[in-house]
């Protein structure tokens, strides 16, 4: 038995849940609604859950014909089907944003984390221009097993937060900004050069990727913790 | 009591070990040997260990005058003083490289990981142009709690490895290559756009940063695991 | 007799089929429908076939008035007229894609290859995040005389495939991706820096160019092979 | 009478002190020692003071032949001649750095500020990875009339400081860092996109330019303040 | 009492007016109209004034429901509410533009400056291709306490103006231009490399930021000037 | 008497015709139709002719109300008013394009050249992929006093042409192309690095600028040539 | 039996000759002389031949101790050991350069091609600024089965040559040039955007890669050609 | 008889003087001294003059063995042999620089212009930060038939000069500057986007290219001017 399902136009990686602990997820953008629906159908039948990111309403209209129990998370641009929830994980993941405009990326993070069995603590709009807001978030972040920090413009927030806590920090640059923010490049470079050691970074606006990485870490902790 | 030690030309962050679980580390490059020696002295007196990265022999000559127990890790370009070792961590960290030329970065990763109490499993030269080498490394990586994957040129290795295992993968692009590798940009971009979900990335040649992040994750697991 | 046909606004290179073995092809984008129709008319009358790439329906509406036997390959964005097919070539060309979203580029490759007399074997969605899919494609690729490998995002697929086979590999980066993929630059750089020796590369999304190069190679083989 | 002095190979802008309130300053880099010496001689004879930035010891050796009262500020790479000091200004300028490695730029700032009549308060190594250091500097900065904030790597410091004080902040990105810091571009972009309103920015490593701008502002205040 | 107001989706920095002398301002772009209205309401209730930049008519329609005294500055893309004007400042700010096409940025500068209590002198279209226009503006600029110079394309204007006057110059690159102006990068780089010492620069099209910085400087002068 | 006309929102450089030999020309893009109309009116009243480049039909609709004798050159995107033609120049200018898609830029060149009194010889679609077309154009180009060579994609045409003739060559890169043409950057760089000595270059798609430069050269020749 | 040989610091891909038709080749740059010598020894013992590219004399001094029959190709920077020559291939490969300065890259191409069993025809200095030189090379190129075209600066040569012949063209951009050639980027982009269809491209200065690709193609032809 | 001379390693374009009016010139950089000497010998024997740019003393030492009448222009980095001077041209060329540091480029311009028969008027250090210097140069520039304007940093000088005169202006960006000047990119972009119409641009530091273009223009004028 091969580790993938042949659909002709696609080869669905149905072995991924077993190999990696979390299932394959479909990128909606650039796929035809028909193709996306077929792929999600194959995934949910194999894994009990399915997720499409960067999906539009034209995708959802077709998916819902084939999978009536799909739901559309509008702000997150995600289509979710959850028939047999994935195992709940012990640790909590903090999701911290620098500004209200980063909200769609925060939503993509939240939807992915929740589908993957994580508890989530969302702390929004704690940008360093009003540093009291940042400092006030410290204890909530410290109590989590991973923190995802979302910021555009100068991308300075992860440097400050990572300096405050012992929690591993995954930074997500966003395309929020204009001019010399270059669609998120300024934030991305700032994060890659963080003066606070140990910050790791994902692609611009890639809330999903950060959530996937956080889930891998969170699950690793769960796996290591013997149930009493 | 302030969380830092005032040296005039520097403010040593002696509170970092307590806040973050691992101590401040000094970047040698660009510092005068005298300044570096004073900073390392302050750090080792407070923390029991001290580390300088990107250090040269001109740095080491001066440091060893002040701290005779310092040792120079030549390939890693690190100065290490270890008087009171940091606590040993339970999990193991895999360090995987794409080619033999990535070796100096691998060394910086190893020195940092070991000083920070991690067990390390080094697997070198498993580039995807001879994919059997990559596949043969799978089980060793899967048995670790974190994997650091080091690659220059096309930066393709993290994508393949992350697709094979449930271990969180931290990718380190290196400046190995020429022409349109642009000093590691090609590898960096490739890793940020990995088709394997959940890869996180650090700065080009930043072996230290990857090791710091892996240590944070590994310690999180240790912290979560009740000792019997 | 000059090697080109003067249309005033254009000089059609009607000598190209003789010089290069394959005819001039028109880029639709940026041409007025009228001009494109006139150019295709000149080409088909001289060569028996004609092809426009990156064409829209506004182009096709006008072309079909002048050349009623034109057909529109929608996904490939190509207009094709084939009155006197070009000679069939002996070798087969593999067309391999990393993901379903690369499909429009795959289509441009296919349409061009078929018009130019090649047999084509299309193998879609074999991205390296599920490496079993990639490995399973090996024998089909090895049996072809050239392989065109199409990938966006991290552009890692050509490195893995070129390491597996003795077939010459032409890599096509696509603009699939977002953020730091920079419209295909990440994939392009990855391919130019492939750790697998001998990969050659064409412009982002340039399926046509890859197919033209593959046809030149395939024809070279055909020319060298004495018919029994 | 023209506003400049014709030296043949140069036209010294001796009218600048009158027009702008501060004299022309020579960039040493790229000038021959002979030319630099002649230019400085013309400037000091007209203005009573002269300054060359980015100068080397080969410059100083020649300058000191012509102007024996010249002094070489090694760390700042500046040659200074001060026969008739410029008027002292009332306000104080804060010079704040993120790390010890930014020291040469801080020195160029200090030398320029002092020559131009400013009082200077230097606060070094207050990077945001140990935020207590940054917060502890607040009152000293607030008491100054302008603040120059010098930082490399992620360039995050100006965002935090500008959020804390009512003092105008001029940010100087430095080339401190490696890999994706791209010789200071990461810090520059971060500063241009500061989430704290009103940060203005100068060129990478341009300590002199920041000091010139700060002097213009400080003098504007002095000019506006009636002496009792 | 915390320095910020918790709205759940946002943490309004109501302490900023006290800390920095000028209130927090909301970036409209990327915010939902509802969120923007709530934020402006909180700001005006605390500070007596409120400003949103980069706002659209969809924002204004909602804001005006909640805050009927809001006004929309169309060209500046600003929403302004001014119930209790901020203190008038003594100094005047010159706003100088290189061409008529820079007008929207000039407007954003003007609206911000006036709300923040500055007197404003606007001098438009004095680009250096007709240098007489530039020279004619000299005296008006010299009489101001700060000058904001707005230019796209070659960004040459700040270099010429800063060479003429003793007024501090803040340069605003605009995205006016095409081709190799790269959306304002050419002007930005030109300004960062100004041959006239002491020019400071803000982000491309960031009229608001320049006005905020100018206000900080202008207020510093006012603060330093004892009222008779 | 000043050399410019004050319109409040603009300062029209009515002295330019006298200073430079050719009048000021207005850039339509980014100007309001009203402003453009006023500027053109001022220019035509002073100079007898007026030109706006990069203009749209919304501009023309307004301009034609104020200046009924204006004409719209659609492909060139130019508005032209010509009441008192400028003096005819003796020399001829060759305008050579690499492909039919470069046509709009060629049109902008032609309209400007003709308004400025030049004779024009247009030679289209002589791209080097069919080198016979290029070689066939040699004599016509050689007989002109200046050549403007317009090309996108690889920008190779100016190198070949400049190698063939003694005519000065001004190269205009166009944004024709896709992917790694980066909106004309590939062609621009190619032209700046031309292996044929003496090629000069203007901005991407800047047909107007090339025509202005060619007119200056052509007029220089005319001026030097004594009429019999 | 695995397809690779474990050396600890390296995993030599000794199965590559069988899989790909040509052996693994070592990149000298960045490897220690000891490591390189061990790797070459393993390769020559397995394959009968071995090649290191981008090697220096410090490499060769060590290699020759271990492998006394090694030879150093100075201009090509290659170390070659050839005990049991690879099979001779039927087709010939043309190597064409734009200028004499491209010579080191031409040498790397030649050394690789000859070791891999190809006949080689080298045609140097046929840059398009003297197009007669280019045209004169046509017949020699047409008679080869593949052409490698090497050019720096404007990278225009492959476009002209590919337009002249039916031979597949592999373009090698070189770092020859200065200023806006950006170390070969101008030539690389020009080649990726070639107006002549079917040009494929390798990395800047990657003569080896082009030769490897050409060998794969040439061998494909040989394989397809029945020996009489 | 072919238009080039075959040297084996080079094909000297001895027909260029006849085709273009000025001879082929050799780029020294990257050529071996032997090769350069052979090429210069061939050129001087054919043309009576020869020029190598970007040459070093190692080149000159070898050239002078073969051609004892060669002279080395050190600052310009040029080797010149002038046995039979080229015809003197009627017009004069102005060479204008923004700062003393641009001097080596000015020298390359001067050496080329003089060898090619032009009269030269050099006006140095007229940067716009002291605009009186620029304005004072106007009449000298206006009296020339072409102006070459050399500037680094902000590259603003050509915009001001081109606005003042009717002389055609060729702009040469130099690599003078640091940080965000990016080796001359800032100046290059500024010049390409000049607000003064009709400025044409050559590669960074390409004094030779500007001089070649100016000579073509100057000769065009001479050719058109009947001698009395």
Classify the beta-strand content of chain A into a percent band: 15-25%
This entry's quaternary arrangement is homooctamer
Mean pLDDT of chain A: 95
Anisotropy-based shape of chain A: globular
**Main β-sheet of chain A, in a few words?**
5 strands, parallel
Quantity of strands of chain A, as a count: 11
What gyration radius of chain A follows from the Cα positions, in whole Å? 18 Å
Task: Name the descriptors.
globular, 228 residues, 39% helix, alpha/beta, 19% strand, homooctamer, 5-stranded parallel β-sheet, 9 helices, 4-stranded mixed β-sheet
Provide a descriptive summary of the structure in words.
With 228 residues, chain A is an alpha/beta fold. Helix content of chain A is 39%, strand content 19%. Chain A is built from 9 helices and 11 strands. Chain A has helices at 16-20, 33-47, 57-66, 103-115, 131-136, 138-142, 157-164, 185-192, 207-224, and strands at residues 5-6, 11-12, 26-27, 49-53, 71-73, 78-82, 92-97, 119-123, 146-151, 169-173, 200-201. In chain A, the strands form 3 sheets. In chain A, strands 8-7-9-10-11 form a 5-stranded parallel beta sheet, with helices on both faces. In chain A, a hairpin with a 4-residue loop joins strand 5 and strand 6. In chain A, helix 2 crosses helix 3 and helix 4 packs parallel to helix 9. Chain A is globular, with a radius of gyration of 18 Å. The model of chain A has no long low-confidence stretch (mean pLDDT 95). The interface between A and B is large, with 42 and 42 residues.
Helix and strand topology:
The structure is a homooctamer of 228-residue chains.
Chain A: E1 5-6, E2 11-12, H1 16-20, E3 26-27, H2 33-47, E4 49-53, H3 57-66, E5 71-73, E6 78-82, E7 92-97, H4 103-115, E8 119-123, H5 131-136, H6 138-142, E9 146-151, H7 157-164, E10 169-173, H8 185-192, E11 200-201, H9 207-224
Parallel strand pairs in A: 3-4, 7-8, 7-9, 9-10, 10-11
Antiparallel strand pairs in A: 1-2, 4-6, 5-6
Helix pairs in contact in A: 2-3, 4-9
């Amino acid at each position: 038995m091969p580790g993938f399902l042949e659909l002709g136009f696609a080869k669905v990686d149905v072995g991924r849940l077993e190999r990696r602990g979390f299932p394959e997820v479909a990128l909606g953008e650039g796929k035809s609604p028909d193709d996306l629906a077929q792929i999600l159908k194959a995934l949910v039948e194999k894994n009990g859950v399915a997720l499409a990111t960067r999906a539009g309403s034209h995708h959802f209209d077709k998916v819902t014909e084939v999978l009536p129990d799909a739901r559309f998370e509008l702000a997150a641009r995600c289509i979710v089907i959850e028939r047999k929830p994935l195992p709940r994980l012990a640790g909590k993941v903090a999701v911290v944003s620098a500004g209200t405009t980063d909200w769609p990326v925060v939503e993509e993070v939240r939807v992915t984390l929740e589908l993957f069995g994580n508890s989530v603590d969302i702390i929004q709009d704690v940008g360093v221009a009003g540093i009291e807001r940042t400092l006030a978030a410290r204890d909530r972040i410290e109590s989590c097993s991973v923190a995802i920090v979302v910021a555009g413009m100068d991308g300075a927030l992860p440097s400050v937060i990572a300096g405050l806590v012992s929690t591993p920090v995954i930074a997500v640059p966003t395309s929020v900004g204009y001019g010399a923010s270059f669609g998120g490049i300024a934030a991305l470079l700032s994060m890659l050069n963080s003066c606070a050691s140990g910050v790791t970074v994902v692609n611009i606006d890639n809330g999903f990727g950060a959530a996937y990485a956080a889930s891998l870490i969170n699950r690793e902790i769960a796996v290591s913790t013997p149930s009493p």
